[in-house]
Write a structure and sequence with these properties.
globular; 1 helix; 86 residues; alpha+beta
């Protein structure tokens, strides 16, 4: 299934549109999506630190999605890297 992922923070540099669409096998977990996204970034956006995906949060419009959760079908997700600043 195609899953649209909105990008924020430093991850936004991966695509000028501000999102990616990945093919995700049905019944994949968020942990599996995390790995697919990191691999995609390493291959297609080497200027972006793919390691950020490991420490980022995944969310739908309604909730944070933990690694054990199944990727919801037909829902845009967001990947939210850690924020720092002052």
């Amino acid at each position: 299934m195609k899953t649209r992922i909105a990008l924020y923070g430093a991850l936004r540099e991966a695509d000028a549109r501000g999102y990616l669409e990945l093919d995700v096998p049905p019944s994949s977990s968020i942990a599996e999506l995390r790995e697919l996204l990191a691999a995609h970034l390493r291959e297609h956006a080497p200027q972006v630190n793919a390691g950020l995906v490991r420490i980022s949060a995944f969310a739908s419009a309604e909730e944070i999605l933990h690694n054990h959760r199944e990727v919801p079908e037909g829902v845009e997700l967001a990947v939210l890297p850690p924020v720092s600043g002052g």
